[in-house]
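Format notes (please read before filing issues)

Several people have asked whether sequences and structure tokens are stored in separate files. They are not. Every record keeps both together, in the order shown below: the sequence lines, then the token lines. Line labels are part of the format and must not be stripped during preprocessing.
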Amino acid sequence: MHQSGIHATVAGVVLAFTIPTHTRIDATQFSQQARALLDRFDQTETGDLVVLTSKGQQETLFALDRASQGVTAPILRLEHALHNFSAFVVMPLFAFANAGVKLGGPIEHGAIALGVLIGLIIGKPLGIIAAAFISIKVGFGQLPAGVRWPSLFGIAVLAGIGFTMSLFISMVAFGDATLVDAAKLGILAGSLLAGIAGATILKIASALRDEQ
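Then the structure lines:
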């Protein structure tokens, strides 16, 4: 991928399409199996409340673990396994390595910074809300139980916190370092405003919901 001239991260996108999303058993089957296994776990208790001395309880736990894996999609297991490493190691390292921006002084290419900022705090929320509205109207989806449009709008605004991916896109899109720096300023400002605005909207939406 690197030698072909295509950015190597495209391989990650292609790989994501190959990870199964289906499960061996569905939620109903898992519920039935789990209840039966828990009953067997109780029935094989030896009286000392120590699993190590009960062969039946040990076998039941292993069977319950297999059932849990069967109802969990491989992509979900992979996401869960990588979440902490990605969130607390990869993402911070990427941000610290690529967010070097000089604050203060005149801003070069202010139009680019402003365009990125507007894209994050206005463009992304509008795109998310429009896609959700169209999907619901044509019958492709529906709002989750207990979720109203104000709450969804607040979540859409929070999506403007596109820090790491926005940095990555700006570095790919702009070859000039001064243009990248301008984009970074827009990203930092847009992410900050999106976080504040999204949290405020969600707080207001929650208060309105409690009053109803």
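For reference, the curators noted about this record: The chain is about 70% helix and 0% strand. The helical segments are 9-16, 27-43, 55-71, 74-98, 110-137, 149-158, 163-173, 177-211.
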